[in-house]
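User: Fold this; tokens only.

Assistant: Input:
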Amino acid sequence: MNNDPSRNNSETTITRIRNILREYRGMPLDENLSKKIEEVCLDLRVDSAQQDAEITEDLGGVELPKVSSGLKERRKLERRNKDKIIDVIGVGLCLLNKELKITWANKTFYDWLNLKDSPLGKYCHDVYHCDEIGTDSCPAASVFNGKAGGIIETWIESGSMKKMCVQHVAIPIHNRDGNINSVLILTIDSTESEKTVHKLLLLQKLGEAMQGTLHLDKLLHLILTCVTSGYAFGFNRAMLFLVNKKHNVLNGKLAVGPSSLEEANQTWKELSSKHSSLKDIFKELDFSHNIDTPFNTMAKLMVYSLSDTREVVIFCAKEKKPIIIKDAVNDPRVTQEFRKALGVNEFVCVPLIAKNETIGVIVADNIYTGEPISDDRVSILTMFVNQAALAIENAETYKRLEDKINQLTEAQRRLISSERLAAIGSMSSYVAHEIRNPLVTIGGFAKALSRFTFTDSKIEANINIIIEEVKRLEKILNNITDFGKPSKPEKVDTQVCEIMVNTCILMENYFQEKNINVRKEFEADVPDISGDPTQIKQVFLNMLMNAVEAMPDGGDLDIKIRRAMTSIEIDIVDNGKSIPKEVLQNIFDPFFTTKPNGTGVGLSISLKIIEDHGGNIDVKSISGEGTTMTMTLPVISRKGVCSNDDYPSR
């Protein structure tokens, strides 16, 4: 056992340095820290009168008498022992003289700066590759000038091209007279601290991006982009599930990630060449990019009962804790179905928790790179996911509020429309009644006159004009009267395919006269609606007439009927003249028309009938392509069935 007091004192001193660094690691330099380190540095100096000239030069340049060669050897041995102890501290140490030249450095300093040659006698800025020489930011120069020592943080390339973030701390060394004759530079590895700061800044940026997105679909895409982006968490793939309380299930909502290794390599190559930061990715994020990918399609088909805790995603949701699956094949928490769907043996599940309630789960993996999923990575991902959960809850609340506002707006629109229609209807009925009496008289006299023979052909032609105009006026009056009638639909189980076919048969000669090619496309298994067949037929007549009038030179008229969830959709598509945007927004207003002989009530009546049936009408018109009128009506059953075979084109 070695009882050398010098060695024991050195070990004690080194322990003190290590404790001080552990206590202050990552914290800014202050007066207390500076004094503590300087006290230890004073203990490192050998004040013995027998210290050899080499040690004296390193620690202050004090002149000492010559000593015997045996004593020198002993001091050199002590020095080597001290150096070995200093080397295990875990920080780089070097001494600078007033010329800012290095007079001593420990092995850690050599290793971290990847030095091949001795730095002794070289200027510190040449060794550190520092740009602060001659500026107030140089901590060593500041110390020699009697100012407080500072800290410089920079990145260096250590051995094996490994990058390290280090802090250089300058500590003054005083001689016996209290003058500063040396500066001790501590080089501290702050890589992990820097990574932590980077992660916190990343979380802040991602949080700001999420809180600024209230559209739920865009938000979900943004969240998974963060999970899979190399500038953020860098997982290869990720999928997101949301809780559906109404049906007590966990639904797959979205998945982001390549479907093959080739696609992955191509995607990563494009991202690295186009984008230099996560901000760039956010700017050009295409929220529709992943809609039709096989991975996303598969995720949307994944539905799990919240009571089935055999599924790992349900277990994760219930436990409210992240789960790292290292071996899916042998892990009892992973069902064979889920493992096959995911196709990877290692993945992580992280719950989305908002206000202590699980609202969903994110699953991520590294199927292509095979990189292990570490606890640290999952820890920072969990912090992000917690922010994401709050953002999702905000987006869902916003969506519910938006829906309520839309419902109120629609209710207000209908109320105003009903009041206006009622007023117009009452007025139009009165006007029609007052006009009809003299019109009947005029028409009767004109018909009576037409039975006489006139020598002047002009008189006969004028009488015929009067008769035709009276007929037209009577038709207009009938339309106005129909518009003013507050008739309610007499609803029965109605098959719209059958009504549409009968309407087309009724208009067959009209289609031929106008050179219209009618094509019908009816989906199989179109169910019945609860409707008034007479009123529905009137709507179809109005819509088909409008489509034909949009094609004065003939054209194609497509009629499509299909099921859409809890409703049916009827498309009437023409390839005639499009409707200008400024006109499109007014086409359903009563008495609005652009036709020379139009009354402007046909579409208004049609919309009212469809709305009375719980449906709506949507119009899309594209210049050069034509117009599509889409009527949507709620279904009541699956009893009615129609197809192209039942009702072939005529």
